[in-house]
Amino acid sequence: MIGSQRRALAMIELSRSSWHYRSSPRPRVADPVPQKARRYPSRIGAAQRAAIQDEILAGWSTGVSVDQSFATMWDTGVMLASRRSWWRIAAAIDDQSARPVAPTRSVSDGLCEVVVLPI
Description:
Transposase, 42% helix
C-alpha cells in the first residue's frame, strides 16, 4: 500500500513547508544584509526623527507626555510617524531628565472609616 506524503510528514511531525525548503532550498546570497540594517521605503528619515524629537522635548518642557505630544501634532494635521515610533524615539533620547513623572496612586494608610447610621 502506498501512503501519502502528507501522512508521512504528519507521522514525523514535519510541516510541508519545512520539507519543501529542506528538499529544495533557496539560493544563497553572496553578501547578506541583516534585517536590522536593511533600508525600506517607509523608514523614518533623520529630518523627521529630529522634528519628532524636538516636539517630544517641547512637550516634556511643559510637562506633557509623549502621547499628548503625538496627539497635539496629529490634531494640527501633521502625522510624521506612528505613536509607537514616537515612543521609540523618546526612549532613544539621551537626556531623560526633562521627562515628566507619571502620576502614581496615592498610598492609603490602611484605615477605612465605616459610617454607622443610627437605627
